Amino acid sequence: MDRSYLIENYKDMNLYDDIDKNLDVLKALLKQSSDIIFREFRIGEKKVKAFLICVDGLVDKALINNNIIEPITLETRKLDGNALTKKSVYESLLNYFITTADIKEEEKIGDIIDSLLDGDTPLIVDGVRKSIIISTRGWEQRSISESTTEAVVRGPKEAFVETLRVNTSMLRRRIKNPNFIIESLKVGKYTKTNVAIAYIKDVAKDEVVEEVKNRLNKIDIDGIVDSGYLEEMIEDNPFSPFPQIEHSERPDKIAAELLEGRVAIISDGSPEVLVVPTIFVQFFQSAEDYYERYYISTLFRILRLAAMLMSLTLPSIYVAAVTYHQEMIPSPLAISIAAQREGVPFTTLMEAFLMEFFFEILREAGIRLPMQVGQAVSIVGALVIGQAAVQAGLVSAATVIVVALTGIASFSIPAFNIAITFRLLRFAMLVVGGTLGFFGIIMALMMILAHLASLESFGVPYLSPLAPSNTRELNDVFIRIPWWAKIFRPHKVAGKNVKRQNYTRS
């Protein structure tokens, strides 16, 4: 058969009655691949033709041999040869002889091939225009290990992996309720990536769930390799530097978000699970905040918010003060800075900008190099280059201190994606502070706030519960109230079931 014609039309083609035609079509489509295995055999005394197909590397061969081939070739001999028909052979295989838990039937060749490439094994019998799809998935996968990007001292240590069903099972193990729904779809013309939508039916808003499905179904792309593809495709404002979708590789954190009424999007092949809707303050909350005592968590949360402001504004404030507002600096400190800057050939703005630029290069080099080498480059490089630059008179010691403090502050932000945003905005703030002084810094901060206030994530204001203000929900923004006082779920996120608990402390 003409393969080019089959490639264009196989998705809508049904199986034939004649098994030889089915075999010819499937071989024309798949035989060029060396990892596709065709196994032909005959069933019963009347030698009814049948064959199965599997992908080497995606299936459990022991399962195929023990639960499919052995029962078919040995046990079917017990069938009554006189009463045997092709249809009865098929029904006997479907109902009695195939001893695996998960099987289904498909008629279209496109659906059969999709199942095959997912790791299932199609079994086709002569004279029947249906295929038995047997679940035999058994590829190699990374074992569950500790999170490397969201480490905690107290709390669960396991993290998501790249296998979809392993990830959904970790969530199912934490939320044991029939209202916890996991729906699946495929995204990508060539990759046909399995994507799962997880939510708690009586907690999540129906309109949010429907919006998630609509946005995913509208995606028309060649392939999805990681959940980052989906994030860019479905976020509300793709031109904003601020992330509007949170992602995490911690099952405990995703389960907690689901219990608040959010929707999780899980992509096969990615250990990062997306969560919507997302608000700004989520990026400064660590999973550990809810495992330690509430007053300790409150202190850490305030420190993180202070670190965020330092990361964004400290270099620009330093440059603006030294360049335009020397009267605001205490006299001994002003004299010390002036003495350090004597002989430095650059302006304060250029000096700070170059130091920030090279600090970012060092940080990027430390991430991209192997772990042992990367740590040495980032730490030793910063110390040696900073000290050498000061001794050579290229930069002042005060500038090195400010840049170092800014870098340390950015490391305190739990979410890497929002930390990158502040690293980007820091350069813009630096230029504004070095040209317009404190006036420019205030104007830039107002513009950032106005932009944040204009953002939404799946219908939820990005700055809520700060703007629009909801005083009842401010107890989980700057502070973290004790668990016995957390009675309600977030009002803007949860659906009808907004009450979290009925516990009252006596």
Fold and architecture overview:
This protein has 506 residues and is α+β, with helices and mostly antiparallel strands. The chain has 3 domains: 3-135, no CATH class; 164-278, no CATH class; 304-460, no CATH class. It is built from 15 helices and 12 strands. The chain has a 5-stranded antiparallel sheet with strand order 1-2-4-5-3, with helices on both faces. A 5-stranded antiparallel sheet has the order 6-7-9-10-8, sandwiched between helices. Strands 11-12 form a two-stranded antiparallel sheet. The longest helix has 39 residues, at 416-454. The protein is elongated and about 105 Å long. The mean pLDDT is 86. Belongs to the GerABKA family. Pfam families: GerA.
Helix content: 40-55%
Strand order of the largest sheet: 1-2-4-5-3
- The overall number of domains is 3
Q: Give, in order, the helices and strands.
A: HHEEHHEHEEHEEHHEHEEHHHHHHEE
What's the pLDDT, averaged over the residues? 86
Total strands = 12
**Beta-strand percentage?**
5-15%
| Main sheet summary | 5 strands, antiparallel
Overall, the morphology is elongated
Distance between the termini: 78 Å
- Secondary-structure content class: alpha+beta
DSSP helix count?
A: 15
Estimated radius of gyration: 30 Å
Given as residue ranges, the uncertain stretches (5+ residues, pLDDT < 50) are none
